[in-house]
Every structure is written in C-alpha cells, then in structure tokens.
Amino acid sequence: MADITLFIGNKNYSSWSMRPYLVLCKAELPFQEQLIQLDVPGFKDKLLALSDAGTVPVLQVGDEIIPDSLAISDWAALCVPNLWPKDPKDRKLAREMCLRMQSDFLELRAHAPMNLRRRTRTKMPESCLQDAQKMSDMWEECLGRHDGPFLFDNWSIVDAFATPYATRFVSYDIARPAKADTYISELMADEDYLSWEADAMIEVWELPDTDMVYGGRG
Ligand SMILES: N[C@@H](CCC(=O)N[C@@H](CS)C(=O)NCC(=O)O)C(=O)O
C-alpha cells in the first residue's frame, strides 16, 4: 500500500483531527502523522496548499488527497472491514449520527470547544446544556438498544466521532445520565485516545481565546 500521512491540527484542540486518527489506529493501518499548528501566522496557507478545503484533517495516500473526517473514515472502512456496524440498519443509523455530530450541536461546540487540558466547573449557558442533553439522549437511546460498551456494541467509527464530545462533558463538568457517563469513561480510557491525549498534554502551543472560554483556567 502507498504511504499514508494524516495531517492534523493541535492535538489539544482539534476535535476534527482526533476522529480519523482514532479510526486509522483501530484500522491498524500504518500511517504517519503530520501536525500543522493552527491559528498562527501562515497556517491557512499551509492548509490551502494541502487541499481546497483549507482545513485539517487531510489524509494523503500516495498521490491521493482526502479532506474531511468522515471521508477519511469511509476510506479506512473500505480498506479494513468492521469499522462500521455490521447490521445495515445500524450502519445507516451510525452514519447519520456521525453526520449529526459533524454538523449539529452548534451551541455545545461554540460554548464548550474541545480543550483536553481544560477542567472548569463554570456554569455553562442554557443553550449549551440543552445541546449536551440532546447529545447524551442520543447516546443513551442507542446504548439502551445494544449491550455496549460502545454505541453499536463493538467499537465503530461513530464512537470516534463521539470521543471529542465525550471530552467536552469532562472538561466543562457537564452533567450526564448514568449510561452516557459510563460510555464517556469507556471512550476516555481507550488506549488510542490516551495516546493522543498524552501528546496533547505536553503540547506547548496555547490558543488563549479558547482557553479563556467560560472563565479562564477553571
Ligand atoms: N468537515 C470538516 C471540518 C474540518 C475543520 O473544520 N477543521 C478545523 C480544525 S479543528 C480547521 O481546519 N480549522 C481551520 C480553519 O477553518 O481555518 C471535517 O470533518 O474534517
């Protein structure tokens, strides 16, 4: 197979980058990662030189360039079986959930940006809490129909999409019901997640605007 490189943003902050990283790890596809520091002078030019999307993540496979976290995940699922749930109905639902997690939950994303080093207990705005509740309801409904520990029993791409959200519940101390809480703990104990998190913890770059959301370093 051609060389595979995953271009990612800062590990502490780039929720989009984390998802395909987890998918490629689970696929056991050998890949290199290349980090492009976000929000520093010239970063956008670097992203646009990689792809017209002007965003990370981007996957390079030989000469092929694949932007977008879901497209990269779909590419991995074509190479390696079982990254999506086996049952066709579950697979459809899992994909819909990924799309929702990509484009919906705007209040949660705006008010509780992924920030793995962050721990705060500042009260979050109601709109953010409502979105968080929508997210935990979606997870609980799915977990209630399966045996766990993941949304569709075994780990699948939809769990990679949920992981950055799981970290937000912990970073911003957002309340969640019991099943969702257990699920969050499961995602955050995953060895590939922990490896990403360990790198994020020692990253030296800081994005002060993001770190200051809701009361600074709480
Ligand atoms: N739909 C894209 C969105 C990617 C995205 O927004 N990435 C952020 C990184 S966290 C980015 O590159 N932001 C830089 C910018 O928009 O200038 C995906 O799923 O990969």
What are the defining features of this structure?
218 residues, alpha+beta, Glutaredoxin, Glutathione S-transferase Yfyf (Class Pi), Chain A, domain 2, 2 domains, four-stranded mixed β-sheet, binds glutathione
Structure description:
- The chain contains 10 helices and 4 strands.
- The chain is an alpha+beta fold and 218 residues long.
- The chain has 2 domains: 4-79, 3-Layer(aba) Sandwich (Glutaredoxin), CATH 3.40.30; 88-200, Glutathione S-transferase Yfyf (Class Pi), Chain A, domain 2, CATH 1.20.1050.
- Strands 2-1-3-4 form a 4-stranded mixed sheet, with helices on one face.
- The chain starts with a strand and ends in a 7-residue tail after the last helix.
- Residues 9, 14-16, 38, 44, 47, 54-57, 68-70, 102 line the site of glutathione.
- The site of glutathione has 15 residues, from helix 1, helix 2 and helix 3.
Question: How would you briefly describe this protein structure?
Answer:
By secondary structure, the chain is an alpha+beta fold.
Q: Number of DSSP strands?
A: 4
Number of H- or I-type helical stretches: 10
At CATH level 2, the architecture of the largest domain is: Up-down Bundle
Q: What kind of sheet is the major sheet?
A: 4 strands, mixed
The pLDDT mean sits at 95
CA-based gyration radius: 17 Å
Work out the count of structural domains.
Answer: 2
Q: Under the CATH scheme, which class of the largest domain?
A: Mainly Alpha
Biggest sheet strand line-up: 2-1-3-4
Shape: globular
Spell out the helices and strands N to C: EHEHEEHHHHHHHH
Helix percentage: 40-55%
The secondary structure category is alpha+beta
User: How large a portion of the residues is in β-strands, by DSSP E?
Assistant: 5-15%
CATH topology of the largest domain: Glutathione S-transferase Yfyf (Class Pi), Chain A, domain 2
Distance between the termini: 46 Å
Unreliable parts: none
Unique bound compounds: glutathione
